[in-house]
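Subject: design request, 276 residues
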């Protein structure tokens, strides 16, 4: 089975909106042509509380995904306002949103363990002091991750989460909102997943945990100046009895962004090396 994975769409009608729509339509078509059966989204569908125009664009994209024979599921990101993604559950297009930790069985041997953006405020609310709260946050996160583990033999688990991995690299210029809860690879390992599919960071990067890939696909479009790296999504291949047998990063035809260096000399602007 092939699975498409993307994250950090940031639908925003005030910023490169047509580019965002074009690239998501391209990803839907490309994923279908590659034989993907489901689309997993790692959160931050919207940039902030959504507008009617942005919700309509997401609905159109889901119609395209469903029309191409694929289901879709999402976890909420830190930019997604609570409850803002519920419309996906009402579109009857095979889409499902997780705003709380949970799991979904795709087949009798393949499950997705879901972790939406963790709320620091809800964890700290029961703490007696800030110091207790910091320890409580770390241990509460570990408890949640342990709860997403499956001990059933022969089961392949994909972890789908929106979280900040300690020591991850960001794109130059990516604004980080509310990034005060971090997890380490040793924390993620508590899930015992066959692959860890992560949203939040716009720069594509990967690690591994005991041979299981840990993947940020990055954003499918350039959401801020400085994101000059390749943009795209990820395709995974899973097989019953073998788990994740391969994955690849697929570059999308995002509008290029380049960095230009110039020198200011009195009343002349020139590129380095120009003769003045």
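Subject: RE: design request

Done. Sequence follows.
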């Amino acid at each position: 089975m092939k699975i498409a994975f993307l994250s950090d769409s940031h639908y925003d009608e005030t910023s490169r909106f047509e580019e965002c729509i074009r690239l998501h339509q391209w990803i839907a078509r490309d994923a279908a042509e590659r034989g993907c059966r489901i689309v997993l989204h790692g959160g931050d569908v919207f940039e902030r509380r959504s507008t009617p125009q942005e919700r309509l664009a997401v609905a159109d994209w889901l119609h395209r995904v469903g029309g191409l024979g694929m289901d879709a599921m999402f976890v909420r990101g830190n930019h997604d306002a609570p409850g803002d993604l519920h419309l996906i559950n009402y579109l009857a297009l095979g889409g499902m949103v997780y705003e709380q930790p949970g799991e979904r069985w795709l087949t009798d041997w393949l499950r997705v363990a879901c972790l939406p953006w963790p709320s620091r405020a809800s964890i700290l609310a029961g703490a007696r002091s800030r110091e207790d709260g910091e320890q409580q946050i770390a241990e509460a996160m570990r408890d949640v991750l342990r709860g997403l583990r499956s001990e059933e033999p022969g089961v392949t688990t994909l972890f789908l989460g929106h979280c900040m991995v300690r020591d991850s690299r960001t794109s130059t210029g990516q604004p980080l909102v509310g990034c005060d809860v971090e997890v380490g690879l040793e924390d993620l390992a508590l899930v015992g997943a066959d692959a860890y599919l992560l949203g939040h960071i716009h720069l594509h990067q990967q690690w591994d945990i005991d041979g299981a890939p840990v993947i940020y696909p990055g954003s499918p479009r350039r959401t801020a100046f400085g994101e000059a790296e390749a943009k795209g999504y990820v395709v995974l291949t899973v097989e019953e009895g073998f788990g994740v047998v391969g994955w690849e990063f697929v570059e999308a035809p995002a509008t290029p962004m380049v960095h230009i260096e110039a020198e200011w000399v009195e009343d002349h602007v020139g590129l380095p090396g120009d003769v003045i």
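The longest strand covers residues 243-251.
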